[in-house]
Design a protein that fits this description.
Helix content is about 55%, strand content about 15%. By secondary structure, the chain is of the alpha+beta class.
């Protein structure tokens, strides 16, 4: 019962002291608020970037593999990769037969071309030659019409599937399906429109047109680099399929025993590892800056609390003379420090969340603050106040009552 009374009384005196020293309280609150705001804004940007990058990898597909001349993460001589033998369409069927876990294999050939409909034009649109299996390897969803078919490939049909952005620009308010567009000044009939997909690693994947690869080769030539993408039935089977695929590709490309692979099998987790390596040190440094700022705010709390102890020495002596215990004095000053720090943390959290939102809204950088981060921000600021309030509280509690009463 006495403990509860001491706690209540200590809290009441602490709040009274904060109200009577408004300027000091505001300055201390601002100091800790700046620290929490800085830390929360940095963490928000980091969390947003991590979430954005994870979404980008999900668009690639965690159960896909891409085979090309160039690895996504280059560790060697670029010219050595450049001089590798080009992949061919003859590899599609051997790759499909490499494992029972392979469910789709699609070739991809690229060129940038002008696309137009009547008076509307789009320059440098990514034009891709592929097959019907591409819809399975890239989780393509059709918004209108249909995707490419095997009959389109076999007949070299002059048809295209267009991205959502191409459809919006060339056909505002019109259903594009059935209309003819010009791709590099050659007519193609629109078979379908893909559902909007957004950006992938900074590239607008809705600004694309897709042709049957046979029609693509007939239009743009057969000397284009080929990338082969395949889908695996389950993510846990990807490593096993990659091993079988390596054996198949070495055999089909007549790679000599002991010679290095003359192809690259790329997986989305390679990009994730590279991202972690590139950003790990940056995130550590940025978080360190935020923590240092919070540390400075904590030191400010400690200094102001020490000043408060000196100014209230006589008050402490009177309270000790009237029977106040040391733990009551300690609790009172810790309560003051924690209250100021928590209020500053709440204000800093609100400002930090606003800054993160502004960064997300006004810049290409993604920023998102998780709910648990908000809780941790306020809680951590209160802990900082408690930690930096321990010394001033201990000094106040250990004052000699007689000497304190003599203090002017």
């Amino acid at each position: 019962m006495n403990f509860r009374v001491d706690v209540w009384e200590g809290a009441r005196i602490a709040l009274t002291s904060l109200r009577s020293n408004r300027l000091r309280t505001v300055l201390t609150t601002v100091g800790i608020g700046v620290g929490v705001c800085t830390l929360l804004a940095i963490v928000g940007i980091i969390q947003g970037l991590n979430s954005s990058f994870a979404d980008q990898l999900n668009k690639i597909g965690s159960n896909t593999l891409q085979v090309s001349k160039f690895p996504w993460v280059m560790n060697g001589d670029w010219w050595a990769y450049r001089n590798r033998k080009t992949l061919s369409l003859d590899l599609v069927e051997p790759m499909r037969a490499a494992s029972e876990h392979v469910i789709a294999v699609a070739p991809m050939m690229f060129v940038n071309a002008e696309v137009s409909f009547q008076s509307r034009k789009l320059a440098s649109v990514q034009t891709m030659g592929t097959s019907p299996d591409y819809a399975m390897t890239s989780s393509v969803e059709m918004g209108q019409g249909r995707f490419l078919t095997q009959a389109d490939v076999d007949n070299r049909s002059p048809v295209v599937v267009i991205g959502a952005e191409v459809g919006k620009v060339l056909f505002p308010g019109i259903n594009p399906v059935g209309h003819r567009i010009l791709v590099d000044r050659r007519p193609y009939r629109v078979a379908g429109v893909i559902v909007e997909r957004g950006t992938l690693l900074g590239q607008n994947v809705d600004l694309v047109v897709m042709l049957p690869y046979t029609a693509f080769q007939g239009h743009f030539g057969t000397l284009r680099d080929v990338t082969l993408v395949l889908a695996v039935d389950e993510q846990e089977n990807v490593p096993r399929v990659q091993d079988r695929l390596t054996e198949t590709l070495r055999r089909e490309r007549n790679t000599k025993p002991g010679a290095p692979d003359d192809f690259a099998i790329n997986r989305p987790d390679q990009l994730a590892n590279m991202y972690a390596q590139l950003t790990g040190a940056l995130y550590g440094a940025a978080t360190g800056v935020g923590l240092i700022t919070l540390l400075v705010g904590g030191i400010g709390i400690m200094n102001i609390m020490l000043v408060s102890v000196r100014e209230r020495t006589r008050e402490i002596g009177v309270r000790r003379a009237l029977g106040a215990r040391k733990h009551t004095i300690i609790f009172q000053f810790l309560m003051e420090a924690a209250s100021v720090s928590a209020v500053g943390g709440a204000m800093g959290t609100a400002v930090g969340m606003s800054l993160a939102w502004l960064v997300n809204y006004l810049t290409p950088l993604a920023a998102a603050v998780q709910p648990m981060t908000v809780v941790l921000g306020v809680g951590f600021s209160a802990v900082v106040g408690l930690l930096f309030g321990i010394w001033p509280a201990a000094r106040a509690a250990n004052l000699d009552p007689v000497e304190a009463l003599r203090h002017d």
